[in-house]
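Tutorial handout. Part one gives the primary structure; part two gives the three-dimensional structure as tokens.
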Amino acid sequence: MVREDVKNLEQTLREVTGRSVSELDFTDDRLGIVLNHLSKRGSWEQIEAELNQNTIRAYDLEREVVRCDATTASGYHEVSEGGLFQFGHSKDDPSLPQIKFMTGALDPLGMPLATDVVSGEQSDDGLYVPLITRIHRALQRQGVIYVGDCKLSAFETRLHIRGLGSHYLCPLPQTGKTPDDMADWVREGIARAQKHAWSAVVVKDGNGEDVVVAAGYEGERRHCGEFNGEGLEWTERVLVVKSFNHAAQQERGLERRLVHAEQQLYALTPRRGRGKRQMADEQTLRAAIETIEKRYQVEGLLRIEYEREVEQNIQYVGRGRGGANRQQEVFERIRYQITAVTRDEQKLEEVKEVFGWRAYVTDASRERLCLENAVNLYRQECRIERIFRAGTDGVTRTAF
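Part two.
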């Protein structure tokens, strides 16, 4: 394929490179030698930086926003020690080994600036700093806003971006102290919502009409750290936002889980009949109820009533016919029957109130990135996902 392209462009390549170029310079064995040299990190990073600088200058591309993200591609490959294909956390198929791609792309064009391919067992957190450092050297510019998912929010990554003189925008994960902080932030958000003291996020729909998709407020907190041996302090803005679409989606998910849980709970105690297993022990019943509530994540949201039924059977002791003086024995058959499963509407309303809330952090100024613009900027994360869909299509079907 490459030889054919070169054959058609020999004259052009000679003029551009100032060298005598022929199709025989691009045979498979010679291309293999080139790829071997390019596979060395030092050589490739230098070429990558020069290509990016030339491309950005030639097309006068904006250098305001860079999106960073990682993805995996899995397949039926053998796992070898030190190899790229390894077992790791996978959203696709955990039973298959995978490789991981880490990419930083220039927004809004979606032009990849730097890409790392690493073994599949590696976590995303440690891949951001070296990637962003390479992009910073390639762009040769401060003040760039790096946008990423919650894995970019690691404090070391935010500190590094700040130390480079640039900015970040990312959501906070529900780990560490964030869940406790988030509970307070959401309570504040609910209070503001009742007073209509929050900022709306507006987007254009398919008809060009303004639609309010979210609303929220912001606060500030101070951070400090050390970068290249020097102390660094900065103010971080926390954007607490409720997405109405996400809240509605969570409510629909909760409704589905409640319906399934109710069905499974009633099925625990079927009516008597052939092949119908009866629940004869209260502790066993309560354990089964807790299992279902946990499976469908509805703990504390349902009121479950059940009753104990006892059926007595009298039988004569020993063989033979019964008589007035014949000793008798009473047998009891015990079963538990769930009589009602109702929803705790008050608790359901409390749960629904916190749906759709998320916290974002950024060190960019309000003038540079107001709350509405920050949310809309993050909502365009699909731009980098298109790169992954285009770049990994077919990887899983290729044998390495």
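Part three, for discussion. The chain has a mean pLDDT of 86. The two ends are 20 Å apart (CA to CA).
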